[in-house]
Predict the structure.
Amino acid sequence: MLNQLKEDLLSGSAEKYLNKLFEKIEKSKLNAFTTLAKESALIKAREFDKSPWQGKLAGLPIGIKECISTKGIETTCSSRILKGYIPPFDAHVIEKLKNAGAIVIGKTNMDEFAMGTSTETSCFGPTRNPWDLDYVPGGSSGGSAAAVAGDEAPCTLGSDTGGSVRCPASFCGIVGLKPTYGLVSRFGLVAYANSLEQIGPLTNTVEDTALLMEVIAGHDWRDSTSAPIDTISYLPELRKGISGMKIGIPREYLGKGVDSKVEKAIWDAVAILENLGASWEEISLPNTRYALAAYYVIAMSEASSNLARYDGLRYGLRSARDENWHTTFSEIRSKGFGPEVKRRILLGTYALSAGYYGRYYLKALKVRTLIKNDFLRVFKTVDILASPTMPVPAFRIGERINDPLSLYMADIFTVPINLAGLPAISIPCGFSGNLPIGLQLIGEHFAEDAILRAAQAFEESTPFHNLRAKEAA
């Protein structure tokens, strides 16, 4: 779809296309965008129309999640504490997008500091699901997913710390990829949990995801966790088919706690993959039962450390009058952070405090190793894994926001992948009523080509990627 749009823009007008896009966004009920870079985007579009430039994404508009630094465009992480902050630099992925010819059209809504599963904790208000406005789009990259599903952007970037690209992709019926840890630079990504998070694309098709990954992946000397990988070609792999591929089905990812319609959609998807030439076998990841607890201890501990820098003294929210440091610091953070962020800071600080570090954080790191070893073991016998992305379809706005544990439990099939640093993709595979269901395909480290190939084979054999949400119809 992106390649076709690029051809359309070359033969038509990028400026007219962007004007229609901005008009739609400004009238939208989705609340997918928080800030529009209308002036700068239209200037670039006029330049493109006058003298088209080259590049894999030449002239294509893209939306960027609120936690990714964009030079000259407000970047707030959907938090009051960063209101008014305009970065003086671009994230590495933004540099790469611009070098490939893309045009940034604005910032997309998210759960505050990427802490959430529903995009309800944003200071800009909740984003709505294009398939049904009464339902959540997933989180924390809900604005990025809703923008794509609602035809308000042909592609977007999100970030995934425990499922924040895959969850909204599943709930909104689009494609979302969480890359291998280290494959995409985190330079310019506002830190939530450094050892877990990765930037990833959200698109309408697998081919579009592969195209964006070719652009944003690669080594960056400014990110000490960046893998020494430069040239990556995913598009040629998509047409190779999956004949002979072995797929593992984790028994811990199906059964109790999984919505019956979700489970049926997953088994139906496995049958399709089998008809395409793959084989499958049931496998076990026994330490999955500890994943959620380990993840939240690690993520909250890292968050409490990372968010200590926000004091309102250098940028962002500032108190009307300054008193002593402790009072001013406390007042700014009390007003600037929302309830979920405060909750995670407090729990993380507790887990790292004297006397509890070994009991909680250190033990969580040991459990993380067990979970990683589970995956390494099963990948000796299978090529990829298949599972539900989420155990349930999207839920109603307001249904779970006051029950944090139920929100945390929704991440049960996505957080193990972040703990192990593996790549995983969510693609649409069915519906529960009018709400999409996502299939998650998981690969070995740096095996994005394998999961993209399987995702492409499934997509070509099913109609789900061609179905449009009512807000996009």
